[in-house]
Amino acid sequence: MVAASIALLVLGAIGAVKAGSAGASYMYDLEQVQPALATVAPAVRDPHTPRLAHRVFLVIIDGLRLDKSYELPFLDELRRRGVDTEATSHYPSWSRPNYVSILTGVPPSASGVRTNHHSTPVAIDSLMDRARAAGLTVATATDYDVLPGLFLRKRTAASAVHPEVARADDPLDDLDIDAMADPLSEAAVRAPDANLESPFNDARYAPWPGGFTEASTALAAGNADLVVLLFGAVDSAGHAHGGESPEYREATEIADRALARALGRVDLTQDAIVVTADHGHTKRGGHGGIEPEVLSVPLILAGAGVKPGTSANDARLIDIAPTVSALLGIPAPGHGLGRTLDDVLALDPADKIARDIADQQRLTMTRGVVAGAEARAATDLLENRAERIALVLGGAAFASVLAALLIRRRVLRLDVRVLLVSVPAFFIVYYALIGTLGQRFSPSLLPALGIIAVSMAKFGIAAMIVQLLASMAALRNQGTLGQRLAAANGIAWTGLMLAMIPAGLAWAFFPPPYVTLPSPVWLVVIPAVQVAVACAAIDVALTLMVEVIIFAARAWQRDTRPLDS
Ligand SMILES: [Zn+2]
Description:
Helices cover 54% and strands 8% of the residues. It is α/β, with parallel strands linked by helices. Strands 2-9-8-1-7-3-6 form a 7-stranded mixed sheet, with helices on both faces. A two-stranded antiparallel sheet has the order 4-5. Helix 15 (416-437) crosses helix 17 (481-509). Bound molecules: zinc ion. The site of zinc ion has 6 residues, from loops. Zinc ion is lined by residues 62-63, 95, 235, 278-279.
């Protein structure tokens, strides 16, 4: 009987480790290092339209939701002089995925950058690549994140200071830009010698709002043709205090003042300013899902080449790269899935048509590549799905046969009353915590930046404690010691089955790699189930350990009592 307990214990431990590691790696599994688009040459089509703006300033205010972007003096002034419209961010509405949407015109589903944990450079054609190919210079200033690192390029012989060491065939797949940011890592130490170059001619990272203003002001006074500014304080305030907090409002005012200082002297008769955001924030703080307050972001355009008072219909973040390309008179990034927002541009009818044709030619190629990859992934998924389902159901059947044997030998007991009290306790508490504290099942459930599974593990631990106490209470009046341990085995077996079958089915239906993104609900449910298995398994182990100790202690007490008297 103790042996059966130990066997269940081991089974639980294996389940916990497997499920736990699946949950922990889940965010990384979502990433696609080599999305289909990165394997084909960009469809660069030059429509030969005139340059509408001498310089373009593309501003990303990280985490600025649409409704909170009004009543800010500088932004409102730009709106008054230009175009006041809005854009839709892309799911998963996290930062890195949507920096990529804005700068390449490729949404997270197709760029492979699905979370903020994407740490290899993105091999997708970008605005910076197009501008530099056209002989323009590109600069960036940020107080926040990894823009230059995210778009690192292999140095080519033509671009290298030392052409003899430049090899364009070096892979970038194993490069970890987050590790590189740590000055003590090996990658960072080797970085100066690495065969890499920034996509920007001038990249400035000043990690405080005042530094952002200084760096942006310097870039505005310079002569880079395309300047990308990324401001982070609004997003930080959203995460810390929520999207409707006074602190968030204050951060939007700081952003507005910083931009007024940096861009106040831009000559809008010659140059253009485009302001947008990568995503918004929920009331509680957080983003990643498809809530309107998370997906709706401002899109403000003003200056040379912009047709004041117009509006863009159904603009998406992926439309910004082709639109900025049109302002600069260069081809749009060639992997893009967006279109030029030509309604807001001062383009001649013939030039409008030329841009539309170039967009169509590009979209024919890029949409085809993406659709092909998704179709292949769907086929692969279906091909092995029956096998995976059979494996899961077979495993469950085997476990049931084993349980039946154990029941006959009275090692395992399925006492309905005991099970009713103890087993559901974990699941009720766990999912109720995610559902209430996490507001619905959405990737926006986390206010803080981080890994979904880690936060769920906290809910799991709370649920474990409740179930452990419930089990102890339910087992209290269980007749003999042997009966009590058998009932504990019953709790353990049922709990493991209830956790592992859904986890197995989740794996059968949604195995990595996630070429096609899981829907927002599944994006949360998959790690929720994995974490539930890990916690339930640990819980089983704890319950059994306590029971085995009680069993051993009482048995020892009973054996030793005659000697004492
Ligand atoms: Zn962001």
